[in-house]
Amino acid sequence: MPDALVIGSGPNGLTAANLLADRGWSVAVFEAADTPGGAVRSAELVEPGFVNDVCSAFYPLSAGSEGITDLHLEDHGLRWRHAPAVLAHPTLDGSCPVLYRDLDATAASLDSTHPGDGDAWRALYERWAVRERAILDAIMSPFPPVRGALRLGASMPPSELVRFARFMLLPVRRLGEEEFGGEAARRLLTGAALHADLAPESNLSGFYGWMFACLGQSFGFPVPEGGAGSLSGALVHRLESKGGTVTCGAPVTEVVVRGGRAEGVVLGDGTEVHADRAVLADVNAPMLYGQLVAAGHLPASLLADLDRFQWDDATFKVDWTLDGPIPWTAEEARGAGTVHVAEGVDALTVVASELARSLVPAAPFLLVGQMGVADPTRQPAGTETAWAYTHVPRRPKGDAGGEVAGRWDDDDVARFVDRIEVQMEALAPGFRDLIRGRHVLTPQGFEAENPNLSMGAVNGGTAQLHQQLVFRPVPGLGRAETPVAGLYLASNSAHPGGGVHGACGAAAARAALAGHRRRRVVGAPRRALRRGGAEPRAELGPGD
Predict the structure, then answer these.
(1) Are 272 and 401 part of one and the same domain?
(2) How far apart are CA 137 and CA 329, in angstroms?
């Protein structure tokens, strides 16, 4: 009987499994898909010889998270690759601010669009750099993040704490207005903020934009050589080297609960597998509490709160194989691994407004990946693999462009792909002539690829303030522990949320270890009393 069962082999599930294996636990991971990785997988989606990332593609949070870096995955085959530039944001006026890993190069790019914005960025980045580890500790630690908060508080005089708190809560539009004189730097920051489902006017969006831009400055937006699946492959290899197992094609249909405690799982073929110590679920909160655990084992208040759970926006993604690099008019964009396509902060506000009103955006904000720029191993020489994804409403009520019904049938897909490619062509004339083939994932397609990605909700629930911290996934939880003893939520529906950082899985593993210690400490006296002996002191070995 394994000590722990892990449901799902996404990066959080595999991180949790590895940390438990490091403590001497026997761990079995069950994955519904035929390959491990969850949203971190790669395949030849379009044509042989061209490797595409199925869902996620670049990983600044992996590079900055101790949950991933402490696993030393480079010893298990992982190799990170970087594009010459991290992030570019060209527009039709010809301007193109660029974020590089070299601070002087970033500052020079911003100064070229508006004198003085380079120094403004230096000051913003310095504010991050002196607190980087404290901030990441505070974000990635289980809630409440005591150690990180203390380190963050110690990094500045008490008189500055209130000002820093204000800074952290600023909408990104306001942050850009306060810090930069030019539109180009503001849109670079705002585009970074909209990697989460936040509007430019949302509280906390300034923090997200600042964090992602600073992560890019510190670590870049690295990609695994050979495709995203190489990251998952390294996690699996490490786990197996510790004696853990990963079984694919084995969907879990039920968490077995007896006496208020999770005792195991039921697989799709009816097999019941027992766990000696814990069950960790790398699945979204609605799936765990609405499908896998019977309602009778859960408090009525949790089920009521779950009715108010808010998903992040749905996702639509196009992968291309190309006969050459994307011919951006702004040459600076040609060396960037990631490119944002939107005409400015106002355009991003319009997109956010359309999404808030459940309208398919007329000019969607595109996140574009040029994978060959960072990793030439993914395609034949002289060609390119690229993708663009954008957010759309989960249940569209209409189309701001007047063409798409929101059913995402063949006609909708063709019209929306054309809309995306027209935007690309405007900034990179000749782009469409280079297209060899394409692969499309609609919101329904994301969910078919991975049921955990409900309609392509890649964040496991909204990143807005009302569903973060102690409110994630529902008010009063905020941690990996669940109302069922021995069951832990290890997915990005738990704090700290979306991104490939492994922190949700790490928090669940630590909670499982602590729960087992408490169980032994409480259980030892009871066992002694049943035997009629004295109450012994509980001794904890390295496997506990």
Answers:
(1) no
(2) 40
- Measured over the CA atoms of residue 420, residue 375, residue 340 and residue 313, the dihedral's sign is positive
Per-residue pLDDT band for 520 (boundaries 50, 70, 90) equals confident
Q: How many residues does the chain have?
A: 544
Residue 61 domain flag = no
In a domain, 472, yes or no: yes
Return the structure tokens found at 183: 């539109």
Cβ-based neighbour number of residue 376 at 10 Å = 16
Whose tokens are 């750099």? That residue is: 129
Q: Within this chain, do residues 488 and 503 fall inside the same structural domain, yes or no?
A: yes
Cβ neighbour number for residue 312 with a 10 Å cutoff: 25
Number of domains comprising the chain? 3
Residue 66 lies in a domain: no
* Distance (Å, whole) CA 230 – CA 222: 13
Q: At what angle do helices 183-193 and 103-113 cross, to 10 degrees?
A: 120
Do 303 and 237 share a domain, yes or no? yes
Tens of pLDDT along 275-295?
999 999 999 999 999 999 999
Question: In terms of domains, do 150 and 88 share one?
Answer: yes
Domain extent at residue 393:
313-454
In this structure, are 386 and 490 located in the same domain? Answer: no
87-111 residue pLDDT tens: 999 999 999 999 999 999 999 999 9
pLDDT, tens digit, 9 for 90 and up, residues 416-449: 999 999 999 999 999 999 999 999 999 999 999 9
Query: What CA dihedral angle connects 360, 364, 367 and 372, to 10 degrees?
Result: 100
Does residue 464 share a domain with residue 450? no
466-494 pLDDT tens trace: 998 889 999 876 789 999 999 999 999 99
> Alpha carbon of 465 to those of 66, 199, 216, 462, 482: distances in Å?
24, 12, 23, 8, 21
Rounded to whole angstroms, the Cα distance separating 195 from 208 reads 8
Residues 321 and 440 in one domain: yes
Q: Give how far the C-alpha of residue 15 lies from the chain's centroid of Cα atoms, to the nearest Å.
A: 14
- In this structure, are 119 and 186 located in the same domain? yes
